[in-house]
Amino acid sequence: MAGGHNPVNPRTGAIRQRFMHKLNYDVTQYGRPSCVGCGRCVGICFGGVDIVRFIGMAGED
Amino acid sequence: MQTKRTEDYIPKAAVIRKITVENSQVKTFEMAFADEESNRSFHYLPGQFMMVSVPHHGEAPISFSSTPTRPGTIELSVRRAGALTAFMHTMEEGEQIGLRGPYGKPFPMATLEGRHLLFIAGGIGLAPLRSVINYCLDREAAFPRLTLLYGSRLPSDIAFHADLGPWRNHPRISCFLTVDAAEPGWDGAVGLVTALLNHTDIDPAATTALVCGPPMMIDATLKELSGRGFSDDNILTTMERHMKCGIGVCRHCHMDSKLVCVDGPVFSRAQLLQLDVAEVQS
Questions:
Q1: What's the pTM value of the predicted model, to 2 decimals?
Q2: Running DSSP on this structure, what letter comes out for residue A25?
Q3: Same domain, B62 and B163
Q4: What is each CA distance from B125 to A57, B73, B129, B218, B256, in whole angstroms?
Q5: Structural domain includes residue B67
Q6: Which residues constitute the domain of residue B75?
Q7: HSE-up of B103 (CA within 13 Å, CB side)?
Q8: Which helix (H) or strand (E) holds B129?
């Protein structure tokens, strides 16, 4: 931003926003999740980011 | 899904009528749409912002620093910070620029009527508050008492001299200025803007604070006001985020579950405390 400060932690904040907007925020805003649950992103991800694991971990909290 | 009208997000040509140099980093651009009909139908309120664009140089969100009570032209105060704003600083009067908007929720001016308004600004943060201050001064009956606390880095960084002069002599507004570091010729206060609160007599129950400035200052000021007995609903601030679309589609300006471009940029401390926000650590 203009002041040179980054309000979103690039590790925790970005991944949290990525999944929370698909599964939670968009449900509030548009009435449905923006993840259809096809699972292709899990197999293709080079970084091993696994939305299914995230849902499991979020469910434990 | 919310429906969007195309005229809400297609930039319109505007002409720069006048450029005021506020300090070494900030210029105020007074502009009007090239098309008279757009000027007549254009309405905004303090706290909202415009998306400003120049072809090949980018687009950026800039908040209004002028008041809708003085219609005809709009003023945007721009600090030289990135590609677009650096180019804007090379532009001259008479050149064309693209504008779309207004976007965002404004300050709740109707609910602020009758209250003592305390403005706390840091640096370029005075720009959106200048819009509110001039709005309040133009509506004398509704806003009886205003107080401005304004902090700058250096005395030479103090912006909006053309407004500060009349404000200092105005019976309904009291101005207090401070700088982080003095320069020769400065005989005013030195220190943080929150220290100026000691010089003012404020009844937290009858006062609403409007805060805008850099993130560190927002955090410190919101805590200080809360400690002085302001309720969280009576502390308003406007957030800076890199809004890309302005209409709640791209989510660049996300702040937890909120989007600054459509849910803000004006938030109360009560709203911010429910979110995970970098500027507000409880």
A1: 0.86
A2: I
A3: no
A4: 40, 21, 7, 10, 23
A5: yes
A6: 6-103
A7: 30
A8: helix B126-138
Same domain, B54 and B184: no
Q: Could you report the per-residue pLDDT of B80-91, keeping only the tens digit for each?
A: 988 999 999 999
Residue after which a domain boundary falls, among B86, B103, B120: B103
- Among B103, B133, B153, the domain boundary falls at B103
B148 to chain A, any CB pair closer than 8 A? The answer is no
Contacts of A7 in chain B (CB under 8 A): 215, 241, 255, 277-279
Nearest-Cα residue of chain A relative to residue B84: A2
The pLDDT value given to residue B4: 62
Q: What is the pLDDT of residues B198-218, one digit of tens each?
A: 888 888 888 999 999 888 888
Cα–Cα dist B90/B31, whole Å: 16
pLDDT at B100 over 60: yes
Whether chain A has a CB inside 8 Å of the CB on B241: the answer is: yes
pLDDT greater than 60 at residue B1 = no
Q: Predicted confidence band at B256 (pLDDT cuts at 50, 70, 90)?
A: confident
B208 located within any domain: yes
As for the ipTM of the complex, it is 0.76
Size of interface A-B (CB pairs under 8 A): 33
Please give the tally of structural domains in chain B.
2
Fill in the DSSP letter of residue B32.
E
pLDDT at position B276 is: 81
CATH for B124: 3.40.50.80
Q: Which residues of A touch B85 (CB under 8 A)?
A: 2
